[in-house]
Amino acid sequence: MEENHQKTMELLSGAKSCALILEQNPKEEMFLLHSALSTALKGLGIYVLTLPEENDAIKFYKEKWSSVLKEIPERAQEKEQKTVIKIPKKDFLIKELSYDENEEFFSLVITPKQGKFVKEDVIFEDALPEPDAVLCFSFDKKILEETNGKIKISESRENVILFYSETNGSKILTEKITDLLQLLQVDFSLPVLNLLFASLVLETGRFKNFANSTVFSLANFLLSRGADVDTVCMILYSERTDSFTQIIGRAAARSHYDENLEAMFSFLQETDFEKTNNSSSLNLILKIIRELEYIAKLPRIYAFFWQKGNEIFTVLKSENSNYLSELSSIFNIPLQSDYFLNGPYKNFSEAELKIREALVQAKLS
Questions:
Q1: 106-115: long-range contacts (C-beta < 8 A, 24 or more apart)?
Q2: More confident residue, 348 or 365
Q3: Is 137:26 a contact under the CB 8 Å cutoff?
Q4: For the chain, what is the total number of helices (H) and then of strands (E)?
Q5: Which of 138, 214, 294, 344 could crosslink 311 through cysteines, CB 3.0-4.6 Å?
């Protein structure tokens, strides 16, 4: 058993609650695996808290995969609610604290050293959830900073587990999550199978990037248990409209690979979006990059440049988390999943020059 799985099993053994945390702009396969694991844990009777609760990326994925997600049975979750009673220390010092109860009431008895309490002095708040296990779909525990004010995590963070794709790992993340579900002896329902199979297709680049016996064995495992290829493919290809195909063609025509930097450079002008009836957005750029990954040589880093109004923006995307982290530190920009956004620049020349300088610096470090 993998060390990560062993620790996860220990945390989940007897756990009443679990937090599943995604990055703010997660990869699609991360969302799918997150949904599969959430469904499985709820089936085991564990209360599951998912973060972030909702944003544009999560909403988009939920809508895209709604036909699969709606097949997941609704499960009533019993949430343990705690209430915190706060008394301002600057105004009152407590001499004694006790409680009493009878058939009708439970009474908290507070004896101050001085003065007298009135109800306006006391503050009632819902206590932050304190999950028994915190499972993060990220390679960096910095993701926990985004949970401030939403859940309570121990300072030692001993109950935190990270799930992420390793560039040179022996197992892809879909396989790791599937192995974990088997260890948990969950019911591989049709929605869970479809979510896992869709994640496998995406994570392997439609079996282009990871074509080995282990991957195909996993595909066979999911298919033999009933994963619906037609449903998954229909959803995956639903975005391939004429306008999207046209913008992909323009991006491919304006792409070139730099052998020395191991980088793919792609450029789109504002007129490219206008002529193909597309609106420039970060979400669209990320989808274009994913399509280019299927048809082009897999680089160490994607550098995608596009024009929005009179400004130029770039996305730097890589599966190599260490390399991407080095680049993001050069620009002093926090990572967002396996990419980060950079800009604006005045023109394409300035943007490309800055990015090339950073790539050279990162490569030498």
A1: 115/91
A2: 348
A3: yes
A4: 13, 13
A5: 344
